[in-house]
Amino acid sequence: MPDAIKTYVHVVDAFNRRVGRIVMYGIFVMMGILLYSSISKTMFLPAHWTLEMAQFVMAGYYLLGGAYSLQLDSHVRMDLIYGRWSPRTKAAVDAVTIMMLFVYLFFLLYGGISSTAYALQYTETSYSSWSPYMAPVKIVMVIGIALTFLQATSIFFKDLAVAMGRPLA
Amino acid sequence: MSYEMIALLMFSSMMMSMLTGQRVFAAIGFVGVVAAAVLWGNGGFELGFSAGMKLMKWYPLLTLPLFIFMGYMLSESGIAEDLYKAFHVWMGGLPGGLAVGTIGLMVVISAMNGLSVAGMAIGATIALPELLKRGYDKIMVSGVIQAGSSLGILVPPSVVLVLYGMIARQPVGKLWIAGVFPGLLLAFLFVVYIVIRCKINPSLGPALPKEERNMPLVEKLKLLRAGILPFVIFFLMMGLFVMGVTSLVESSAVGALSALAAAAIKGRLNWAMWNRVLEQTLGISCMFMWIILAALCFGAVFDGLGAVKAIEHLLVDELGMSPWQILIMMQISYLIMGTFLDDTAMLVIVAPLYIPLVGKLGFDLIWYGVLYTITCQVAYMTPPFGYNLFLMRAMAPPEITLVDIYRSIVPFVAIMLVGLAIIMAFPEIATWLPAHVYVKG
Amino acid sequence: QDKKITWRLQTYAGAALAEEVVRPCVNAFNKAANGEMEIELYTADQLVPTGELFRAMQAGTIDAVQSDDDSMNSPVDIKVFGGYFPFASRFSLDVPTLFYQYGLDKIWEEAYDEVGVKWLSAGAWDPCNFSTNKPIKSLEDLKGLRVFTFPTAGKFLTQFGVVPVTIPFEDVPVAMQTGEIDAIAWSGITEMKTSGWEEVTKYFLTNNISGGWCGSFFANGDRWKEVPEHLQQLWRVCMDSSHYRRLHWYWGGEASLRAGGSSLELTTIPAEEWKTVEEKAYAFWDEIAAQSERNAKVVKILKDYQAVMEKAGSPYR
Ligand code: NA
Ligand code: NA
C-alpha cells in the first residue's frame, strides 16, 4: 500500500477513535436529562424539552459513535459461511461486500445533506411546542454519517491489504 | 412486476446479502435504500435518512442504550459475585447444583435488566470459569448460560416487550407483568432438565465437596444479604414505573443510575472498568441502533408495497387457514426466520406485518407478546445467526469450541419450545397476572 | 394512452381514523379514475414521520398530503393557523366559511406557491378537547399535565401550566400508559373513540380550545401539474366529498357520544373561568399577527368574521 493510504488510514482511525471516546460519555447526558425530567416532575413543573432533547442526544450518540463502533468491530454478521473462512478470505470478501455499506452510507449522507440544507434554508424548527431549530441536530447527524463513511473507507483499505497478504501493521 | 414479487425479491436479496457475512445492518440498509431508489426514483433517495428521523422520534428506544449501560455496569459491579456465592453455598450440594444456581442467578439478573447482554456477560465471566473449575460438563454449562441469559427479555423489565408494545400498541406495564410466570416456568423447566440429567449422569455436574459449603447456618443466612441490592434496584426501576412515579424512559435512567451506584457502593469503580463499560455500551448500542435504522428504511419500503395486506390476503383468503393454523404458522415462520435473521431486524420488519393480523384474528395481544418473546429467545440461541452465540463466542474460554456452543443449545431450545407449547395451550400462565394486578404502566 | 399515474398520499391520521376521514374519498377517486390514476393511501408515520411530511412532499418522497399546516411542519408563516388555532372557530362550518367566503383560500394558495407545494383544499374536522385520567374541573387542574397536543396549541397552553409533548400519533395510547404523557388535547370525543384512545383515558373535558380543526389537502407542485385537468377536477370533487363526510360524521358523533355513547366521564370548567382562556387567546392572536404581514391579514379576517358572528347572534354565537 502506498504511504499516502497508510497515513490516511492512520489519521482516520485516530480521529474517529478520539471522537468515539468522547461520544461514549453521551450516555451520561441522556441519563442526566431523563433523571432531571423525573425529578422536575415530582418536585416542580415538568420541563417540556427533556424527552426531545434526550432524543437529540441519542441520535448524536449512535451516529457520531458509528465510526468508532465499526472500528471496534461491534457489528454482528451472519457467519454461517463467513465464520469458516481464513482471515485472508474474510478480508477479501469483505473488501468486495463493503460496497453495500458504502452504498447505504452514501444514501444516508445524501438524504442527510439534503435534509440539512432544507433545515437551513427554511430555518426549520422541530414539530413540537418547544420547537428548537433542527439544523444543529441534523448537522451532527450528517457529520456522524460522514465519519462513519470515512471509517468504512479505512476498513476497506485494511481489508484490501490483508487480502493482498500485506496487512497494514 | 407485482408488488408481492417485489416484496419477495427484496426479502431474498436481503438474505443473500447477509449470507456474504457483511455486517447485518449494511446488508439490510443496502437493500432498503436501493429498493427505495429503484421503486420511487429521486423521491426515494432520502428514505434512508428519513428513517433516522423516525428512529429519533421513537422515544422508547431511549431505554436501549441505558439498559445496555446498566447491564455492563451490573456485570462489573460485584453484585453477581455475591449472589453467586450464595447460590453456591445453598445449592452446591445437589448434583448439578451449581448449574441450578446459575439459572437462579440469571433469573435475578433478568429482573434487573431488559436485555440478555447482562446475563451473558455475567454468565461468561463469573459463572462459567467457576463451573468449569468444578468439573461441570462444558457443553451443558455453555447451554445453561445462554438459555439462562435469554430470560433477560422475558422476565421484566424487557426491551423486546417495550418495542413489541409500541408495535402492537399494548401497555408495556401489562406486557412486562405478563412475562413473570412464563419466565419462571422456563427457568423451572431448565432446572428440571439439569437435575434429571445430573441424576442420571452425576459426572456432568459433580456436587461440591462438603467442606466447601460447610458453614454455620448464621453465615449461610448472612449470604442471603446479597439479594438486598438486586431487590432495591428492581424496586427503583420496576416499582416506581409500575406505580406511575417514573415514566418508562425515566425508569431506565433510574435503573442505569442505580447500577452505577451499586458499583460505587461495592467499591468497583475504577478507570479501567469505567472505560470498558462505556466502550462496550457505545459499541453494542450502535450495533442495535444501526440495525434498527436500516430496518426502519427497509420496513418503510416493505410497508409501502402493501406487504401487510398481501400476507393477510395470502393466509386468510387464498389458503383459507383457521386462526390457530395461522398463529402456529406464524410462530414457525418466526422460528425459521429467527435462525437466520437478527431478531432486532425481525422485530422492526416482520412484527408490523404479523401483529395487526393476530389482533384481527381475535387473539389476545398481551399473550401473543409473550409467545413472541419466547420465539425471540429461541432465535437468539439458534445457529447460524444468534446474538447470544455471537457473544458466547467472544467471551467463552478457548476450550469451548464453536461446535460445543452449537451443540449446547439443542436441549435448551427444545425446552423452550415445550414452554412455548404450554403457554399456547394455557394462556392463563401469561394473562392471569396482568388481569389481576393493577399496573399504571 | 399515457402511463397510469400513481400517487402516494400520506395522511397525518392514524390507521383506524384514516378509514373514516380519508379512505372513502380515496376509494371513490380510484374507482372513478377508472385506471388512469391511482392514489395509494398511507397513514400516520407510515412512510415518513409526520414532522417531515412537508419536506417529504416537497422532495417527492410522497406526492400528496392530508394534514393541518402545523402538524406537517410547513415552512410558511401561516402554519400556526392550521390544526387548532385557539378559539379561531366555534363550529366546524366556520372553517370552510373562512376559507371560501372570507378569502383565506387566496392567502393559503399564495403562501404555498412560494415553497413549491400546491395547496388544494381546506376543510374542518372535530373540536379540540382535553382527555385525561384525572377529572379537570378548574384551570388549576391543568397545571403540570404533560399533554400530547399540536405545537401551536401547546405553545398557547403553556401559560396555564400545561407541558406540551409531541410524539408520533400511533404511540399515543402506549405513551399514556408508560407515563410519558398524562393527557391528550388533540380531538373531540369521536376521535377518542375511533383511535382507541377512549380505553386509556377516563375523563373528557367539554370545554374546547377550538371548535373545528383546520387542515388541507396538498400536493407536490410538479406532480400536480402532471395530472390531466379532468383528473384534477375529479380529485377536487372527491376532496370536497371528504370534507362533507367529515362534517356530518363528527357533528353527529360528538353529540351521540356525549349523550351517553362513550365510556368517558364528562367534566366541565365553569364558563366564567373558561372565559379567561378565551381572552388570553385574543392576546395570543395579536402576538401571532405581529409575526408577519400575512399573519396580520389572517388575524384581521378572523376578527372581522368574529364580529359578524357576534352581531348575528344565536345560533351563530
Ligand atoms: Na428482564
Ligand atoms: Na438465530
UniProtKB/TrEMBL annotation, chain A:
Q: Which domain of life is it from?
A: Bacteria
- List the GO cellular component terms: plasma membrane
Q: Where in the cell is it found?
A: Cell inner membrane
Which Pfam families does the record match to this protein?
DctQ
Domain annotation Tripartite ATP-independent periplasmic transporters DctQ component: ranges: 30-160
Task: Kindly state the subunit structure of this protein.
Answer: The complex comprises the extracytoplasmic solute receptor protein and the two transmembrane proteins.
Alphabetic keyword roster: Cell inner membrane, Cell membrane, Membrane, Transmembrane, Transmembrane helix, Transport
Role of this protein: Part of the tripartite ATP-independent periplasmic (TRAP) transport system.
Family affiliation: Belongs to the TRAP transporter small permease family.
Organism listed in the record: Ciceribacter naphthalenivorans
GO terms assigned for molecular function: transmembrane transporter activity
Membrane topology type: Multi-pass membrane protein
Q: What is the lineage of its organism?
A: Bacteria, Pseudomonadati, Pseudomonadota, Alphaproteobacteria, Hyphomicrobiales
Q: What is its main location?
A: membrane
Name this polypeptide is given: TRAP transporter small permease protein
Q: Which residues form the signal peptide?
A: none
Q: Does the keyword Metal-binding apply?
A: no
The residues that cross the membrane are 22-39, 51-70, 91-113, 133-157
UniProtKB/TrEMBL annotation, chain B:
Annotated compartments: Cell inner membrane
Question: In terms of domain of life, where is this protein from?
Answer: Bacteria
MF-aspect GO terms: transmembrane transporter activity
Could you state one GO cellular component term attached to this entry? plasma membrane
Transmembrane residues, as ranges?
Answer: 57-75, 87-109, 115-132, 144-167, 173-196, 223-245, 281-302, 322-353, 365-385, 405-426
The membrane-topology field of this record reads: Multi-pass membrane protein
Keyword Transmembrane listed? The answer is yes
Residue span(s) of domain TRAP C4-dicarboxylate transport system permease DctM subunit: 13-429
Q: Does the keyword Flavoprotein apply?
A: no
Q: Which UniProt keywords apply?
A: Cell inner membrane, Cell membrane, Membrane, Transmembrane, Transmembrane helix, Transport
Q: What does this protein do?
A: Part of the tripartite ATP-independent periplasmic (TRAP) transport system.
Q: What is this protein called?
A: C4-dicarboxylate ABC transporter
Which organism is the protein's source? Ciceribacter naphthalenivorans
